[in-house]
Write a structure and sequence with these properties.
Blueprint lengths: L44 H11 L12 E10 L18 E10 L14 E9 L2 E8 L12 H8 L10 H9 L5 H7 L14 E2 L4 E4 L5 E10 L8 H10 L3 H11 L5 E9 L26 E11 L3 H6 L12 E3 L3 H17 L73 H8 L3 H15 L2 H8 L15
Antiparallel strand pairs: 1-2, 1-9, 2-3, 3-4, 5-7, 6-7, 6-10, 7-8, 8-9
The protein binds protoporphyrin IX containing FE (HEM).
Protoporphyrin IX containing FE (HEM) binds next to β2, β3, β4 and α8.
């Protein structure tokens, strides 16, 4: 059986046109009219249905990451990490799990160019035997802000001006100047790697800190990293203008064409781990998403490989209706207290219920490939046919029981309620080290991109409060 197919499509198995309800259509060229010149009769149900379907073809685009490309393949374990996790799909070398992956840009619309300076999404859905695991990452290993409270404002500042619908640097610099923790992310975004050449030649990262738990309940913090086997390649400004000017879908095309030609993109998966008993020994907070974990003291450990060997059959079904949620994990993998991850746990399934409806997990690319069962039923667009009388729990008539217990983190949580910042902010050390590790020409290009952003004429007016009507504030006062 094809593991990617949930149900066979029934849409194309007649040799002639039909209406949606299956009635034969004998003329798909002309509307039903009074005489040859019209008017058109409202009773032309086929025409009305055709137009009504067309009128509703678009669904809301993703509020971020609207522009994306997906492909299918498999993940294969190459190294045994069963001492760290009881995750079934990581149980032994050689185990393969089907996956669907969606790469994306972040800020602009569904049809926007793929050559803009912007982080790239790298979202992997593993269809494991114990349910789906969504590793929803980006191409950079850190993020702009560390508290999800700031995410909507951050996205508003990065998105086009609500008045002109143009992305404007003065709004971006204005917002981030209040957030020194974002500097590290800018050492990636404004670096040469700020515009990946395509989706095949970029790294990926889970970015947030997750937790691995083994059978005995021992917990490790973990970060996930994808490294492309064909290396990392980027576009400098001039090349990006040239590539984007001739094909605004160049990265989608590169992915599609490579797979069609049998040149399958591949990434190696690595992890870094920290024993929570040692989390205080660093000069940064390991759960702070604006920090990397230094590889010299926390080495990359190989885990497996990801191979994309199948193109999607239908962009709408397997890209637009594809839905990822960092909350979707499997036994053996859990969240951490990383504040940004905690916010994401809520936000994604919330947006999917809005964008795709309450039964979005029944859609073929989102549904688990393993058997599943519960009493969450009905609602809009529910197409699960159930022939059951017991839709409550517990029941002496229903043989379904709780699953076997699996370990979850048991660490004691203490503290008083607070709305505050973390203790070890350490905002500048890692960005400074990264900048100093570059060659002078790379530093120069980085500075030029800042000069460009800061040269926005509205920056000067903001400094005096003129035009914008905003009062200049002390940029580094935080609470
Ligand atoms: C609190 C912070 C964040 C919030 C509230 C948030 C929210 C969202 C929302 C609402 C979507 C649209 C989902 C959809 O409609 O399908 C999205 C997409 C996405 N986000 Fe985030 N996000 C946050 C941080 C991050 C971070 C840190 C990463 C990287 C690790 C990330 C990676 C992605 C990716 C890859 C997608 C696209 C998934 C796809 O391909 O369908 N986001 N995010």
């Amino acid at each position: 059986m094809d593991p990617h197919k949930y149900r066979p499509s029934s849409a194309f198995n007649t040799s002639f046109w039909t209406t949606n309800s299956g009635a034969p259509v004998w003329n798909n060229n002309s509307s039903l009219t009074v005489g040859s010149r019209g008017p058109i009769l409202l009773e032309d149900y086929h025409l009305v249905e055709k137009l009504a379907n067309f009128d509703r073809e678009r669904i809301p685009e993703r509020v971020v990451h609207a522009r994306g490309a997906s492909a299918k393949g498999f993940f294969e374990v190459t190294h045994d990490i069963s001492q760290l996790t009881c995750a079934d799909f990581l149980r032994a070398p050689g185990v393969q799990t089907p996956v669907i992956v969606r790469f994306s840009t972040v800020i602009h619309e569904r049809g926007s160019p793929e050559t803009l300076r912007d982080p790239r999404g790298f979202a992997v859905k593993f269809y494991t035997r114990e349910g789906n695991f969504d590793l929803v990452g980006n191409n950079f290993p850190v993020f702009f802000v560390r508290d999800g409270m700031k995410f909507p404002d951050m996205v508003h500042a990065l998105k086009p001006n609500p008045k002109s619908h143009i992305q404007e640097n003065w709004r971006i610099v204005d917002f981030f100047s209040h957030h020194p923790e974002s500097l590290h992310m800018f050492t990636f975004l404004f670096d040469d790697i700020g515009i990946p050449q395509d989706y095949r030649h970029m790294e990926g990262s889970g970015v947030n800190t997750y937790t691995l738990i083994n059978k005995a309940g021992k917990v490790h913090y973990v970060k996930f990293h994808w490294k492309p086997t064909c290396g990392v390649k980027n576009l400098l400004e001039e090349e990006a203008i040239r590539v984007g000017g001739s094909n605004h879908s160049h990265a989608t095309q590169d992915l599609y064409d490579s797979i069609a030609a049998g040149n399958y993109p591949e990434w190696k998966l690595f992890i870094q781990i920290i024993d929570p008993d040692h989390e205080d020994k660093f000069d940064f907070d390991p759960l702070d998403v604006t920090k990397t974990w230094p590889e010299d003291i926390l080495p990359l450990m190989p885990v497996g490989r990801l191979v994309l060997n199948r193109n999607i059959d239908n962009f709408f079904a397997e890209n637009e209706q594809l839905a990822f949620c960092p909350s979707i994990v499997v036994p053996g993998v859990f969240y951490s207290d990383d504040k940004l991850l905690q916010t994401r746990i809520f936000s994604y399934s919330d947006t999917q219920r809005h964008r795709l409806g309450p039964n979005y997990l029944q859609l073929p690319p989102n549904a688990p490939k393993c058997a599943h069962h519960n009493n969450h039923h009905e609602g809009f667009m529910n197409f699960m046919h159930r022939d059951e009388e017991i839709n409550y729990f517990p029941s002496r008539y229903d043989p379904v029981r709780h699953a076997e217990r699996y370990p979850i983190p048991t660490a004691m949580l203490t503290g008083k309620r607070e709305k505050t910042i973390i203790e070890k902010e350490n905002n500048f050390k890692q960005p400074g080290e990264r900048y100093r590790s570059w060659t002078p020409d790379r530093q120069e290009r980085f500075i030029c991109r800042w000069v460009d952003a800061l040269s926005d004429p509205r920056m000067r007016s903001a400094a005096s409060g003129f035009h914008t009507g905003l009062r200049p504030t002390n940029l580094w006062v935080r609470n």
